[in-house]
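User: Hey, my collaborator sent me this sequence without any context and asked if I could get a structure. I don't really work with proteins. Can you help?
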Amino acid sequence: MFKYSVVVKWSDEDGGFIATVPELEGLSAFGETHDDAVKELMFAAEAYMLTLRESGQEIPTPEKIVPYSGQLRLRLPKSLHGKLAAEAESDGVSLNTYLVSLLARRQGERDTVDSFVKHILEAFRMAVQAPYKIDSDQDSSRYNATETLKEEAGSPNLLLIVGGKS
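Assistant: No problem. I've predicted the 3D structure and written it out in structure-token form, which is a compact way to encode the shape of the chain:
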């Protein structure tokens, strides 16, 4: 029985489906249909595993779905416990509800920052790859990547300084 994850995605470039096994790096198979790609992947995975065994290499462990109970036991300093309990009481909620809201807020902030950084990096990539503007005026013939980044990121406060020889 094959216990590995299988991911199947459509490829415009190949005009068909590409099946992969995330746990088996570099292994992929093509198929004109979803099922064909999976069938081809099974043949390729069998050969892949045989090659690993014959060469004495370690067989990767299949990833498993880990069920979470939703319960967590947490030890913390008494002073922090007291502060958090007081905040929860002040908000009129249980300590458990208060802690869940703090964790959810923190995760939301992290997701927002991650998304923002990804957007800024994409804007930077686009600005760097953009062609130079050609104009009859010599001063305006140089491309202004900072202005493009400001427009892409939607922030007039963004300042990017890139050093190097021109």
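In plain terms: The longest helix spans residues 95-129. You can pass these tokens on to your collaborator as they are.
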